[in-house]
Amino acid sequence: MELISALDDALSHAAAADEPGRLDEALWGPEPTGEQLLIAKQTAHGALMEALALALDGALTREQVAQRLGVSPQAVSKRLAAGGLVALSRGRERRFPAWQFSDDGPLPGLAEVIAAWPGTMLALTRWATSPSADLGDATPTRVLAQRDGLSRVLAAEEALSSAAW
Length: 165
Prior knowledge:
By secondary structure, the chain is mainly alpha-helical.
């Protein structure tokens, strides 16, 4: 409740400021300079490119996915369009991160996980391959491959959504 009260106070204070649309420096600090904004954008872009490179390491082409699943490349595209697979783009090229596949095909419940994800497919890829405290420090990918994994992964995923807040 204290947090909500503090936010309410801050918003009321900001709304009462003389210049609408500008932040109150006494409350929020000075506005960043153009140079600071540029550095922040460059840093964010670098982090995004690094995350994309990590996510695409070992990723499969559409043709490789088709061969792995025993379907045509067009069927892979249809599964992607229907929300049954994750693909990441780098330029004009699309790659399918390997985490979403077991030896038998797509991980069980993958389409439900994709549908429930509140962010980008790059963020989903990072989350799915990172240890999660909500899952006993196992990765969502590993848990999803288990017999009761889908419900546990969906619960952990829901905890990340705005509905949980």
